[in-house]
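Pair request: fold both.
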Amino acid sequence: MSALIPPQHGAWAFLALPLALGAAAAPADPVQVLLAVTWVVAYPWSYAALGVSRPRVRRQFLRPFAIWSVLLIPAALALWVARPWLVWIGLIYAALFAVNVAYARRRDERSLANGVVFIVECAGIVPLMWAVAVGGRGWTVPPFGEAPAQVWILTLVCLLVLTGSTLHVKSLIRERADPRYSRYSRAFALASVPAAVGLAWWWGLPAGWWLLVPFIVMLARAYAVRQPIRAGLIGAVELLTFVLAAAAAFLAV
């Protein structure tokens, strides 16, 4: 079953957060539903594709790859028909995915550098939610420079939240024996608070103060949550911070 459904349960929250933040900053449009479906299905497809790229485990991933391809291809084609210019965005994501493949083939897909690539892939969905709502059916990419400031602020919020979460979880699980990750996690959480103050000011006060809430909670959990702790509880706390970030975005609008 693990070959069909990726075992990294926290990754699903990483997929959902940029969709929620993008929805908060963009006008509603049915094409956003297509983008959301394609984006979510692309994750288990990519997990299976990475497995297929590794000769030693290729056989067990062939069936999941076929199943998710059957679901992904129609969704991606429908999205492309609705917004042909997405082919250019797709090339960028293909290049980023090539980096993921390279790490997988080296059996180093859990590295921090590969995690940063995934974070960039996720954060890019925030402005895309705006772009598919306002973009036409031609081949010209929407002018991202004309996107409202809120779109870019929430993109930065997404980057900060996902990076902070990645460092925190690594410090408690995979890199728990390396004390540097605890320092990195706490330092990043601390630095994120003044960054969030700047984003709140950019957004406009007083509504922008909502954006500060999840970062205060993340700072508190970086210092309060320590080893030993069950993985399920770690995930629950991280999910709470994601929900707070999404709620803050909608309350600030």
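--- second member of the pair ---
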Amino acid sequence: MEDLRSKLARNSGSSRIRELLHLTERPDMLSLAGGLPATEALPVDRIRSAFTAALDTRGLQYGPTEGVHDLREYVADRHGVTVGDVLITNGAQQALDLIARAVVDDGDVAVVESPAYLGASQVLQNVGASITAIASDDDGLDTRVLQEMVDRGLRPKLVYVVSNFHNPTGVTLSALRRGELAEIATRAGALLVDDDPYGELRFAGQPVPPLAAPSLVRVGTVSKVLAPGLRVGWMVGPPWLIDACVRLKQATDLHTSTLTQCVALDLLRDADWFAEHLAFIRGLYRERAHTLTGALTDRFGDRITIAPVHGGLFAWVRFADGTDADELFARAVARGVAFVPGSSFTLDGGRRDAARLCFASLPPARLVDAVDRLAARPPPPPPPPPPGGGF
């Protein structure tokens, strides 16, 4: 039969990380792979009560494409903007998809960090962007490299960053580089996209002032602070972009679930409860991050370096002894532990000397067990057969 798929469907790649996660579904597998919140961090009882309250005419009806007004107002107040600057989406991932489709034409240049969040790379590839990856370090995207490329003629239409507790490296874009990045994007006439799902999860260090630029869109979500299953996210940006994304969203899904928007709003507006909840999950992740990085340092010593871990869900481990993380992954899975090799986050298959480890979803004792399995030496080869072909 003739292949009826569109060019987009034929060319869309699968997430390597989601493919790797299929290998981690064994009940005995200790997974450091997925970026999942801790089950203990999901406020089941509070969400249940919010669902009960939302089961009325408002929560069960169609709603405006822009989102429930009161939720948009809450987000607007948090960001110091007007309601018209806010669009509620099906998680942060839909916001990224809408932004890419609203801004990028086939062949337009989009800048990402390297390594990069794979979900952003996918949506940019789907719209035909010409992706330029800029190296990053422990201070985030290297703005000097970006400036040099712009000076040589690079003209990005869009620049994408995860400024707080980057996925996969966990690092935060420094205050100095935030200012430099805003200047570069503004002079280049590019839209600056700040994807911020982890900003509320700081448990160490000092907060960094948010990115600010004339052409900036911020993307947020409740997935990491309430529950991923609610699928409630948002974008905060200039009216021209919000208007374009509203029209694209109308054709996609009409609107984000009114019911889950009402549930999210109920929890977010309960200020005392939400503050207590954030304090709890920050403490939980602080303990788990400390446990994981401590165990890694104890077992691997100077064979590794670990990027600063001040929040979020991830530790980025770099091997200094020539270890190939892709090869280590295969051995680790056989031992019942999984992580994501660094090459999964690059366009060219590089960063084979690095790995992303999620500390959020396992309790401390199991994190230590996972590191023990990861650090285990491979068994020695079997001895050669005795001479003469004896048995």
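Observation on the second member. The chain is about 40% helix and 15% strand.
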